[in-house]
Design brief:
about 525 residues, 6-stranded mixed beta sheet, about 15% strand, alpha+beta
């Protein structure tokens, strides 16, 4: 905390102090004004009473004809009333009673200089000794002003004490109320990569903090999940790079260990070139996935007849189909708003995956179906249902059903991860479900008549939805995002997306039971 950036407790305390100062000041001003008004009213009533008493004495003197008794009564009236002045003023001439003005008896009577007083007067009765005259009574206001000043001083002291007490008690109360925040801050400081599983505890006496703690813990859950993915990703990349690098190093060492013929060196270089191509393909695929993860959208969108692209993908996979003893056919057609090379790459990956897991002699179907403003493109291959433990991880990078990670049996495990990335780049989603007796894996694309929405890619997570937050539910059945290891060489640049030369090359793996 600094003076330029005070803490929340300090700001609250200062704010409450200012509020208390304003309230006490307003209350003191109201009390002072009320007291002044009451004292002025009391003096006015008192002054009016003195005027009435003086007139009574004048009437009595008029009946008795004894002016001396009148003066005696007026003197008695002033006893015990300091600051009370009474004058009997004839119509002309000096005052009949009361001190005359200094230096001139003919002038109106005046109070001493600097003395303030409230004055009231009334006409004398016509039967009095001074017909046409007046009785004037003045009551000095000095005592009243002295009382008001004393009262104001007391109010200022009370307000100062009240404001100070409010600030002190507010500080103590705020410190006590913010104690859970301090504990949460201490817990948050203890969270580190080595203790990323720690979470904030919800304070029992801080209901207002419950939502903040829950949101922070959920953010930590997502961070831990992302951190785990990053660690797994680093381990996977290191594992995938280790084998080809080891092959290159071993081949070079063997080649240099003894003299080699021209043919032997050519064979060695060819083997090294194959490994280097695999490394290059892996790097290109990772760069492509990185582009999709950071939110890049597909460019060069145009109206595409998906049936034509599906036929091209089937022809491209013809050699793999013959080697696996599997037939393929395209069912349905629809137009989509997409990037043709990217969609063609996704279709080839889906077909490769299906060919790798379809029993020999079966037929895989590349199905195209319009669903509202979207178009679902999927590959159906007969076989046993994909296990649930595989579904929850399918679309994860480097995931393969075979835990042994044999590079000869499934490539790098990026095939469907690339399909999911292509779907995200088009604002679509991926899906997998069971339809009839076949496993269906595919993606959705925006229809030709729909505008591509600017939808940011969903964060990767370890849930059943894989890297996409959305899934597609078409033609009934439970839907979940799944991944089956697949990769296919795309030596033709016409089939590769911009900036990527070819996909990961892979041999056709044996047909496991996972479909």
């Amino acid at each position: 905390m600094t003076w330029r950036h005070p803490s929340m407790a300090a700001r609250l305390t200062v704010g409450l102090g200012l509020v208390a100062l304003a309230v006490f000041s307003a209350a003191g001003a109201v009390l002072q004004a009320a007291l002044r008004s009451e004292l002025i009213e009391a003096d006015r009533i008192r002054l009016s009473g003195k005027v009435a008493v003086a007139l009574h004495f004048v009437d009595e003197a008029t009946r008795t004809g004894d002016p001396a008794a009148l003066f005696h009564h007026l003197d008695d009236l002033r006893i015990g009333h300091e600051g009370l002045h009474i004058w009997l003023l004839p119509e002309a001439g000096p005052p009949a009673y009361g001190a005359p003005a200094a230096g001139d008896a003919s002038r109106e009577p005046r109070l001493p200089s600097g003395v303030r007083a409230d004055v009231a007067e009334a006409p004398l009765p016509s039967a009095s000794p001074w017909p046409g005259g007046r009785v004037r009574v003045a009551l000095e206001s000095g005592a009243r002003e002295k009382l008001l000043r004393s009262h104001l001083t007391t109010l200022v002291l009370i307000c100062a004490l009240g404001v100070a007490s409010t600030v002190l008690l507010s500080w103590l109360a705020i410190r006590r109320c913010l104690r859970p925040v301090s504990r949460l801050s201490a817990q948050a400081r203890g969270i580190s990569p080595r203790a990323i599983g720690r979470r904030l505890t919800t304070p029992p006496d801080g209901a207002e903090l419950t939502g903040l703690v829950e949101a922070f813990n959920h953010a930590l859950d997502r961070l831990e999940d992302a951190y785990g993915h990053l660690q797994a990703f680093n381990a996977n990349v290191a594992h995938e790079l280790r084998t080809p690098l080891a092959s290159l190093i071993t081949g070079a060492q063997v080649g240099l260990s003894s003299p080699r013929t021209h043919e032997e060196l050519r064979e060695l270089l060819s083997s090294n070139l194959e490994e280097l191509q695999l490394l290059n393909a892996l790097v290109n695929d990772m760069l492509f996935l990185s582009r999709a993860d950071r939110g890049d959208r597909a460019e060069g969108l145009e109206r595409v007849a998906l049936g034509v692209e599906a036929d091209k993908a089937v022809r491209y996979c013809d050699a793999m189909l013959r080697e696996a003893g599997v037939a393929a056919e395209r069912v349905g057609d629809a137009d989509a708003n997409c990037n043709p090379p990217l969609v063609r790459r996704a279709l080839v990956n889906l077909l490769t995956n299906a060919i790798a897991h379809a029993p020999a002699g079966e037929r895989v179907r590349l199905h195209i179906e319009a669903d509202g403003g979207l178009v679902a493109v999927s590959v159906l291959n007969p076989g046993p249902e994909i296990p649930s433990q595989v579904r929850v991880r399918m679309f994860e990078r480097f995931y393969r059903v075979d835990a042994s990670r044999s590079r000869g049996q499934g490539g790098h495990g990026l095939g469907l991860a690339i399909v999911a990335a292509i779907a995200r780049m088009h604002g679509g989603s991926v899906f997998a479900d069971r339809l009839d007796q076949s496993n269906r894996v595919g993606l959705t694309l925006p229809g030709a008549d729909s505008e591509l929405a600017d939808v940011s890619p969903r964060p990767r997570s370890a849930t059943a939805t894989g890297p996409n937050a959305r899934t597609s539910r078409l033609r009934g059945g439970a839907t979940s995002s799944v991944d089956v290891p697949c990769a296919v060489p795309l030596e033709s640049h016409a089939l590769a997306p911009p900036g990527v030369e070819h996909c990961v090359s892979a041999r056709v793996p044996p047909r496991p039971a996972s479909g």
